[in-house]
Amino acid sequence: MKPVKVGICGLGTVGSGTVNVFRRNAKEIIGRAGCPIEIVQVGSRRRKDNCDLTGIDFSEDIFAVAKNPEIDIIVELIGGYDIAKELVLTAIENGKHVVTANKALIAVHGNEIFEAARAKGVVVAFEASVAGGIPVVKAIREGLAGNSIKWLAGIINGTGNFILTEMRDKGRAFDDVLKEAQELGYAEADPTFDVEGIDAAHKLTILASAAFGAPLQFDRAFTEGISNISTIDVDHAQELGYIIKHLGIARIHDNGMELRVHPTLVPADKLLAKVDGVMNAVLIDGDAVGQTMYYGAGAGSEATASAVLADIVDVARIINSGEAAAVPFLGFTQESIADINVLPIEDIQSAYYLRILAEDHPGVLAKVASILSEDGINIESVMQRETEEHQGKIPMMMLTHTVVEKQINEAICKIEALDDVIGDVVKIRVELFKD
Ligand SMILES: NC(=O)C1=CN([C@@H]2O[C@H](COP(=O)(O)OP(=O)(O)OC[C@H]3O[C@@H](n4cnc5c(N)ncnc54)[C@H](O)[C@@H]3O)[C@@H](O)[C@H]2O)C=CC1
Ligand SMILES: N[C@@H](CC=O)C(=O)O
Ligand code: NA
Questions:
Q1: CA 10 – ligand 2 centroid, Å
Q2: In terms of DSSP H, where are the helices of 35-191?
Q3: Can you say how many angstroms the Cα of residue 391 is from the centroid of all Cα atoms in its chain?
Q4: Is the pLDDT of residue 150 over 90?
Q5: How far is the CA of 270 from the centre of ligand 2 (A)?
Q6: List of domains in the chain
Q7: pLDDT category, 407, cuts 50, 70, 90?
């Protein structure tokens, strides 16, 4: 059988991992694909010492790789929006199939890229773009194809989860842990994408579209990062029986879908609360199967290479069996993809954790409680703690029952207007994983 020839663009963390794992596991990979596979060319700014390129042509010009007539599959591992888009469209224009780990590219330009690929009859595969090595795109598109998916929630940024875990367990400083995540190759080229939730929102956008059969709508996602999480809230949440995790949540309703990324209190006994370090996990609720969870390394050189190579195997099989055998890009045929309105964050329903700093006067708690009760918000539990940091003042932590976000925001405005209340009220959403 004719060998399938691969060109890799970008020899960084993931690119070098892909070459190294391919060299190590070529026999199994080829055995699974059912045809010979060869990495014939690598394009990148520079070679890497940790990667043996013997027998592979090296070029500093990634566009030369994308146009190389010998190549069947272009693997885009340069990252970013603009040049990556031009590169992928050039590859498609030249009749190449594309494998990419670039969630920014798919979340923002995916609709256009898929259209170009469909017109040219080539495949765009992107398993590595969401949750690194976890085969979660495959799980949604294929394994759960018999379900109506109701919601999904996931820890989908390895860097952010690594930072939160190290801060909580070892008391390490935010910047120090971020620096380590960068050294380990977990972080994005611009690490604000990790800590401000943009990377997680890219991934959630992709998961939601595959789960619900809608076009990609990254610009409508609600995004809040982890940079404002304080150790006070991490500690108080734990006392209340919760762990703070940075979650991406997508949920379908009759009038639209939720698409939101933010720090979230997760009950400590839930599996998601126990997902630590660079690990990712995605919990998916399907009407037939119920809840299933997918867990594994969300970032890192070889873990991500694992997903890139699985896509190469899939595409090699398609090359040999015909395009008709390919799973549609978002799991649904183009004709059945339908627009779904993304609900504004004010319309979502959630339980909330509130931290209110007040003068230590009698009756403050009663005033706060009466505002909440007048606004129809039930309190689940209250905790007061004197701290050395806040002499003469008293932080009050509250958990509310589920309400519409607009309602809690109005109550917070009234609470902040009380004379006894100091500064802004801290609000963190609580997820109970119910329907
Ligand atoms: N590092 C990780 O754990 C994961 C990364 N990803 C994604 O994989 C992609 C690659 O990430 P990394 O390997 O971490 O990045 P990286 O920064 O380590 O590697 C990118 C490589 O591409 C080269 N490059 C970039 N632009 C170029 C250009 N115009 N011409 C020639 N060479 C160019 C760079 O020199 C570098 O060697 C990104 O889209 C990232 O979001 C996805 C999952 C996990
Ligand atoms: N920067 C990302 C890499 C994988 O997608 C992360 O930390 O999760
Ligand atoms: Na994946």
A1: 16
A2: 62-67, 82-93, 103-120, 136-138, 158-170, 174-183
A3: 40
A4: yes
A5: 23
A6: 4-133+301-336 (3.40.50.720), 143-297 (3.30.360.10), 348-430 (3.30.70.260)
A7: very high
Residue for token digits 């190590």? 24
12 assigned binding-site residue: yes
Bridge-based pairing of strands 349-359 and 421-430 is antiparallel
Q: How far apart are CA 129 and CA 136, in angstroms?
A: 10
* Ligand 2 pocket residue status of 79, Cβ below 6 Å: no
**pTM for this prediction:** 0.96
Half-sphere exposure of 80 (CA within 13 A, CB side): 10
Q: Which helix (H) or strand (E) holds 301?
A: helix 301-321
Q: Beta-carbon neighbour count of residue 410 at 10 Å?
A: 15
Residue 366 binned pLDDT confidence (cut-offs 50, 70, 90): very high
Residue 348 C-alpha from the chain's centroid:
20
Length of the chain: 435
Q: Which amino acid does the sequence have at 417?
A: A
| pLDDT band (50, 70, 90) for residue 1 | confident
Q: Which helix (H) or strand (E) holds 243?
A: strand 242-253
Q: Is the pLDDT of residue 391 over 90?
A: no
Looking at the CA of residue 129, tell me the nearest atom of ligand 2. Answer: 5
- Number of C-beta neighbours around residue 210 at 10 A: 26
Q: Is residue 298 in contact with ligand 2, taking CB distance under 6 Å?
A: yes
pLDDT of residue 434: 79
Q: For residues 62 and 200, what is the distance between their CA atoms, to the nearest angstrom? A: 27
Dihedral sign (CA 67, 11, 16, 52): positive
Rounded Cα distance between 349 and 408, Å, is 10
How many percent of the chain have pLDDT more than 90? 93
**Which residues pair with residue 155 across a beta bridge?**
281
> 127 CB less than 6 Å from ligand 2?
no
Handedness of CA 434, 221, 266, 410 (dihedral sign): negative
Burial classification of residue 321, based on how many CB atoms lie within 10 Å of its CB (0-12 exposed, 13-18 middle, 19 or more buried):
exposed
